[in-house]
Amino acid sequence: MESLTLRASPSSTASPPLRLPGRRRAASVRVSASGAGEPDLSVTVNGLKMPNPFVIGSGPPGTNYTVMKRAFDEGWGGVIAKTVSLDAGKVINVTPRYARLRADPNGSTKSPIIGWQNIELISDRPLETMLNEFKQLKKEYPDRILIGSIMEEYNKAAWHELIERVEESGVDALEINFSCPHGMPERKMGAAVGQDCALLEEVSGWINEKATVPVWSKMTPNITDITQPSRIALKSGSEGIAAINTIMSVMGIDLKTLRPEPCVEGYSTPGGYSARAVHPIALAKVMQIARLIKEEFPEGRSLSAIGGVETGNDAAEFILLGADTVQVCTGVMMHGYGLVKKLCTELQDFMRMHDFTSIEDFRGASLPYFTTHTDLVQRQKEAIKQRKAIRMGLQSDKDWTGDGFVKETESMVSN
Ligand SMILES: Cc1cc2nc3c(=O)[nH]c(=O)nc-3n(C[C@H](O)[C@H](O)[C@H](O)COP(=O)(O)O)c2cc1C
């Protein structure tokens, strides 16, 4: 196992506490004004303290001062800003750049939106402007967690300059965008790095030798085995993994014009798919990364789960797999910043149902129940054998069990 120096966040003086392997039942019921105990949603991840695990995912909901301030005011646990690079002048967006999939196969506008495609690039705002806004936000909300999302070309000096300048703005951590599926790979950025393990190892090395705040590497799902690049990012010193970014998609073809969508001057390009439709895929990827962390990084690394979260139950699923925080991007674009209140209430309802008092009470609790298909077959064979044995009566006195004793007795009675 590689040794790793965990970086302290600027807001913490002591070393960031490592996550304890296994679960810990904390006596952390908060007492509300009415005196009733409320499940505690607060989390501490890589030394960063958040009032709840809900974090704005990088994208339009974290694109400027006004909207990030709104997120803090509404109560989001943290904000990850829209991805920035050194030269925003190279980032040129098109419109329309979003397309939506509705549940109704005929696309009735009354039916719910289940899928969202975008061909949006990273931030097209000047870096200096974004950095001044980060500074202002940290001044106004010193106790709130602001994370800078960054991406650069395949150039060590450029990455180092970007890291230095973004850190100077006072952000609490960095999320590295190794995963933007469109536009940026053409410049050897984003998913071009996240999909190439050799490139990723080199670039991750540059990043982790420079960064002095915690680093979360954001991975692309557009790869056969997400654990391979995740392992490399963690071995290179990243404190955590964030997953998933959007899934490569073509939203559809207009059957009247025969042109693909979203259609820009008659043409389109594959984009990134998000929202509810990607949630099951995100769960599978997060499960794989959680197992990787548990099995190969027992000293603990953090996991920020993303993909199709619109309810507290969606978030509970990610946490049950081992996520420390849960990011929401498209959900905010559809429902607004007030969504966080509903997410918190629903997550607390879930916790109450199981008598969980803290997030740590159930984080990772469902992870041990994933196994191989071969093992499922074996388990089923065993279960059928036992059920048959009970029906047919016991073959030998050694087969009596304590739990099934009454049923076993019944199975051998003739009337
Ligand atoms: C319009 C749009 C723009 C996005 N821009 C970024 C970005 O700049 N950087 C990034 O890391 N992820 C970006 N994402 C990806 C999201 O952060 C998130 O990983 C993905 O959409 C899945 O989560 P969701 O279903 O909650 O949206 C963007 C997503 C959307 C929909």
TrEMBL record:
Keyword Oxidoreductase found: yes
Keyword Cytoplasm part of the UniProt annotation: no
Assigned GO CC terms: cytoplasm
Coiled coil: none
Protein origin, superkingdom: Eukaryota
EC assignment: 1.3.1.2
Keywords assigned by UniProt, alphabetized: Oxidoreductase
A molecular function GO annotation: NADP binding
InterPro entries tied to this protein: Aldolase_TIM, Dihydroorotate_DH_cat
GO biological process, one term: uracil catabolic process
Pathway annotation from the record: Amino-acid biosynthesis; beta-alanine biosynthesis
Positions of the Dihydroorotate dehydrogenase catalytic domain: 41-351
Region (Disordered): 1-24
Gene3D superfamilies in UniProt: Aldolase class I
Record-linked PANTHER family: DIHYDROPYRIMIDINE DEHYDROGENASE [NADP(+)]
Name this polypeptide is given: dihydropyrimidine dehydrogenase (NADP(+))
Organism of derivation: Triticum urartu
Name of the gene: LOC125514550
